[in-house]
Structure formats: structure tokens, C-alpha cells
Design brief:
Blueprint (H helix, E strand, L loop, with lengths): L2 H10 L11 E3 L27 E2 L7 E8 L16 E6 L2 E9 L19 E4 L5 E5 L7 E6 L4 E7 L4 H8 L2 E2 L9 E2 L6 E7 L1 H7 L17 E7 L11 E7 L6 H8 L9 E4 L10 E7 L3 E10 L5 E7 L6 H9 L2 E2 L2 H12 L12 E7 L2 E11 L19 E5 L2 E4 L4 E3 L1 E6 L2 E6 L15 E6 L6 E6 L2 E6 L1 E2 L9 E6 L5 E5 L12 E9 L5 E5 L2
Parallel strand pairs: 32-33
Antiparallel strand pairs: 1-32, 2-19, 3-13, 4-5, 4-12, 5-9, 6-7, 7-8, 8-9, 10-11, 13-14, 14-18, 15-16, 16-17, 17-18, 20-21, 21-22, 21-23, 23-24, 25-26, 26-27, 27-31, 28-29, 28-33, 30-31, 33-34
């Protein structure tokens, strides 16, 4: 039975069949943390260009610090133009040629549709060396391009303005890529008068889209860099990223500023960011670029990229409705100074709330525990309605929510200064069910925790829950959520030993045999006498 067929049958067996559900994949990761690499994902290294821990001044008072660590954001990779696409820029006479690594499957069934030219009918053909390729003629300001298959899902794209197919085919012999999406193409056998401007690796593009969230695990920027992130203290929703600020120090090998400017200003970015070269402190040796807004990076995004000490790159990215001005971002970027590893560790400890595991400022502890060497803490999260926003309304039986509500933080705070944030996996009127596992985490090195479920319920009389998956049954205490809102009276954390697959909570007694890789969870809420008060799920 397929997953969809099984789901249809399950829905047919419940009166709530019209309700949608979310199944979250569980895939237990291999043990061992991934060590950040100072060399980044670049294919070319510069001397003494490593990232470094730092201090920074000039951050506007409205921002409060959220994170300080090695970056934890992964490379985006899909067909959309927002992908962190590595590229190399060449100048030949007055012409700019850009080679990049892109994807063409599974969104597109034919290589020719990987063309970004806007051509309604790109021409597919075979290069003299036998490689499949396609040519697209630029439309509405886009550049002509040639895409060449270099992997099962990867293509080498070569693009230039007002260039012939014959010329692009020549450049296809000069740009090389093995399909590694983490490395910009290399170039060889340049014609007379041509020069390589430089490359932009994914890590620099990751830094340009850095967003900071409140009380979650994600650290802005790539794993090769050191990062500090802030959020506007007026924005209180857990998943809100407006407004946020991130300062990152990356290896110099993450990219070249001139190549970045040319790449962002190239064809297919006609509605993209405004690119301005900077003369920072009137120092001709200090490169810089100001990037203002873009559909590619998000409305209200501004970034400054400049050279730091030791050949590193300093990136400041602000996101939101009211980002700092160009001069403010430049002042922040130029204030970045290296500090020692010991000073960085003390700084992190101060941000985390001290050497002990304690709730975040203004929050309250719900429960805590330990898994191996790591202690964990479940705490509240307080949501404040921003000024000018109408008050939310809960179910009619509970009335309107006030300007401040208290909920369960979906992230466990960990003693290793990380957070493990669960994602919704189902539920109903009796509560909500969240799942976390390392493989799905956006953080590279959160911790080697086993998978866990976070359950919240509005049923105040429930004292325990019973979780059954297959033949395994676990009971856990439900803990009172201090000042919890209408849907967060009590909560529990249950660790699970699960193989790869997905988990879905259901209250159906006669459950059809699930397809391979799908785990069905039965969650009963119990009173003090062990009597079932209700079931959580569809």
C-alpha cells in the first residue's frame, strides 16, 4: 500500500477525515558532530583568510542579541533563483561571462528547461565532446545562456549579454565543473585579453540571506563563519524574523567582492538588488559593497560586504521593514575586531544566561532532564502583540487572547548552548504533537539527541500521557505551563527510539497497516487515576 493510499484509508475510518495532517520525517543521523571548516566550501584558498571570533559595536539599541556561534545555515538548493548558486565571473574585453552550477531536476524533466534565459523554446543539442546541452536566447533583459549537463541533477550554466551560441559553446570548453553544488566552476585556457574576476561560493550567498529568529536553534550564516544575530525586541512572535540583524566573519575564500557585484547585477536580476560600491572610510584598499533590497533576498533586506582583518570577509545583513541605513551598516561592519577564543567563549556564556542551564530572560521553566552528557530544558515563550496589531481571538469558549500570551517553546534549550527545535506533526482539539530529530535540524551540530516528541494539551486535568508506537509504550508526566494560554495548559517531552520514517498521531482504533517507513503513534491523555481523558490525533 502506498503512503497516499494508506492515508486515504485512515481518513475514511475517522469522522475527521477532512482534516489535514503533517507527517514529519524521522531519520536518525550518524553519531559525531560535524566540525566547522575554516576553509568554507570554496574551491580556491587565499593565504591566511580564515574566519575568526569577533566583537562588534554600533548595533542600534532596538536590537537584542539572540545567538553567537559558528553559523548553522545550510545551502539552499532548488530550481528557484533564490538558490545559493556558486558562480565564477570572467571579463573578456567589455563583456562579462558568468559560469555557475545550477540544478535542473526534479523540477524539470528536460535539461533545456534549466535555461534561465526566459526563452520559451530553448534548443537542445549535443556538444562536440558528447555532453548534452541547451541554448536559450535571452528574453526581456535576461542574458543568453548555455546549460551543459554535469551530473544527475546539476548543470553548468554559462551566460552573457548579447552573445552568440557559437561563442557560448567555446566558453563551455573553458569553464569546468564536476557538478559539485558547493564549488564555483573553474576556468582554464582563457583567450588573450580575458581575465578571471573571481568566484562567489555558496557560503557568501548564505550570509546575504541571513535571518535571525527568536529563541530557535538556527544560527545565521554558513558553518565556515562566526556569527552574531539580533532581533528587534519589539517583535515577539517565536517565528518572526522581522526585524533582524546578523554580523558574520567568513573565510576570504567564500568569495570576491567584485565577482559578487557583477554576479548580482547580471541578467535575470533586472528586478534584483541595487548594488553600490563603497569607499569605506576613504580607504582605497578597503573593498566594500552595499546591497539594498531584492525579490531574490526578500523585501527590506540590506547587506554590506567588506574585507576584514587577516583576509577574511565581514558580512552584515539586516532584514525587515526598517533595516539600518547604509551608513549604519558600514559603521557596524568596520567596528568588527578579532577576539580570542577564550573571550568568545565568555561572550557566548553571557548570552546563554551564565554557566548553568536556565530559562531565557523573562521566561519560565516547565521541566528539564538529561540525555547522556547533555541536559535539556523545556521553557515558556511569551508572545507580545506588536503595536497596531489587532488582538488575536481563541476558541469562543475561551474568549479573546490578551496582548501577551504564554505558550510552550518548541525548542529545547541545551546545556551545550544549542537548541533542538521540534516541528508540528499533527494533533487536534486535545493538543498538539511536535517531532525533532538531528537529521531534520537546521543546525549543523545541535547535539546527538535521540528523536523526541513534544506534546502540549489544553486539558488541565490530565497528569500523564501514554505514547504507543508499534509494540513500544512509554508514559510521561505532563507538566503545568506557568500562565499558559488556552492551548498550552500542560506539556511533556518524550524521547523515542525510532528508525527512519515518518510519525503521525491518530486516534483510530482499527489502523490499517502503514506502508514501510511510516510510524503510527497513539497518544492517550490520562488523569491522576490512569483513566483516559482523551486522545491526541486524527
Amino acid at each position: 500500500m502506498t503512503w497516499h493510499a494508506w492515508l486515504s484509508e485512515l481518513r475514511a475510518r475517522t469522522a475527521l477525515g477532512i482534516l489535514g495532517i503533517v507527517a514529519v520525517a524521522i531519520s536518525v543521523a550518524a553519531c559525531g558532530e560535524r566540525t566547522p571548516n575554516d576553509e568554507g566550501t570554496s574551491g580556491a584558498n587565499k593565504d591566511n583568510n580564515a574566519s575568526y571570533p569577533f566583537e562588534v559595536t554600533g548595533v542600534p539599541d532596538r536590537y537584542v542579541i539572540e545567538a553567537a556561534d559558528r553559523g548553522g545555515t545550510k545551502q539552499d538548493w532548488d530550481y528557484e533563483m533564490g538558490s545559493d548558486t556558486p558562480l565564477t565571473v570572467v571579463k573578456a574585453g567589455g563583456q562579462v561571462i558568468i559560469g555557475s552550477v545550477i540544478t535542473w531536476e526534479p523540477m524539470e524533466s528536460e535539461l533545456r528547461w534549466a535555461s534561465r534565459s526566459g526563452d520559451p523554446d530553448p534548443v537542445a543539442f549535443t556538444l562536440p565532446d558528447g555532453r548534452p546541452a541547451a541554448f536559450g536566447e535571452g528574453q526581456v533583459g535576461a542574458w543568453n545562456d548555455l546549460v551543459v549537463e554535469v551530473g544527475k541533477t546539476e548543470a553548468l550554466r554559462i551566460a552573457a549579454d548579447d552573445i552568440s551560441r557559437d561563442e557560448l559553446e567555446k566558453w563551455a570548453t573553458r569553464f569546468q565543473s564536476d557538478g559539485d553544488r558547493a564549488k564555483a566552476p573553474t576556468v582554464s585556457d582563457l583567450p588573450d585579453g580575458a581575465e578571471v574576476v573571481g568566484s562567489v561560493q555558496p557560503d557568501l550567498l548564505i550570509a546575504l540571506r541571513a535571518e535571525v529568529y527568536r529563541h530557535v536553534s538556527s544560527v545565521p550564516g554558513p558553518k565556515s563563519g562566526y556569527s552574531i544575530g539580533w532581533v528587534d525586541h519589539q517583535i515577539q512572535a517565536q517565528n518572526a524574523s522581522l526585524d533582524s540583524l546578523a554580523v558574520m566573519v567568513l573565510p576570504g575564500s567564500a568569495g570576491d567582492i567584485d565577482a559578487l557585484k557583477m554576479g548580482l547585477a547580471s541578467g535575470n536580476n533586472a528586478d534584483g538588488p541595487v548594488i553600490t560600491s563603497l569607499s569605506i572610510n576613504k580607504n582605497p584598499d578597503l573593498e566594500g559593497v552595499f546591497i539594498d533590497g531584492s525579490a531574490q533576498f526578500g523585501s527590506g533586506q540590506r547587506s554590506v560586504v567588506t574585507t576584514g582583518e587577516r583576509g577574511a570577509l565581514v558580512v552584515v545583513t539586516a532584514y525587515g521593514e526598517n533595516p539600518p541605513s547604509e551608513s549604519e551598516l558600514v559603521a557596524i561592519a568596520t567596528s568588527v575586531k578579532p577576539i580570542t577564543a577564550d573571550d568568545w567563549a565568555k561572550f557566548q556564556e553571557e548570552i546563554f544566561g551564565g554557566p548553568r542551564l536556565v530559562p531565557d530572560k523573562g521566561e519560565q521553566e516547565i521541566t528539564r532532564g538529561r540525555q547522556g552528557d547533555v541536559e535539556w530544558l523545556l521553557q515558556t515563550i511569551t508572545h507580545k502583540q506588536p503595536e497596531g496589531v489587532e488582538r488575536q481571538t481563541g476558541p469562543d469558549t475561551h474568549g479573546p487572547l490578551g496582548p501577551t500570551t504564554v505558550a510552550v517553546n518548541e525548542c529545547l534549550k541545551l546545556s551545550n548552548r544549542k537548541r533542538a527545535c521540534a516541528t508540528p506533526s499533527g494533533g487536534g482539539t486535545n493538543g498538539s504533537f511536535y517531532i525533532w530529530n538531528k537529521a531534520n535540524s537546521q543546525d549543523f551540530d545541535t547535539v546527538d539527541l535521540p528523536a523526541f516528541a513534544l506534546i502540549t494539551t489544553p486539558i488541565a486535568d490530565a497528569t500523564k500521557l501514554r505514547l504507543r508506537i508499534g509494540d513500544d509504550t512509554t508514559e510521561a508526566d505532563l507538566h503545568v505551563v506557568p500562565e499558559g494560554d488556552w492551548n498550552n495548559a500542560k506539556a511533556a517531552v518524550v524521547f523515542m527510539d525510532l528508525s527512519a520514517g515518518s510519525v503521525i498521531p491518530t486516534c483510530v482504533d482499527d489502523v490499517p497497516t502503514p506502508p514501510e517507513g511510516l510510524h503510527v503513534a497513539r497518544i492517550d491523555l490520562l488523569d491522576v487515576n490512569g483513566e483516559v481523558l482523551g486522545c491526541l490525533g486524527m
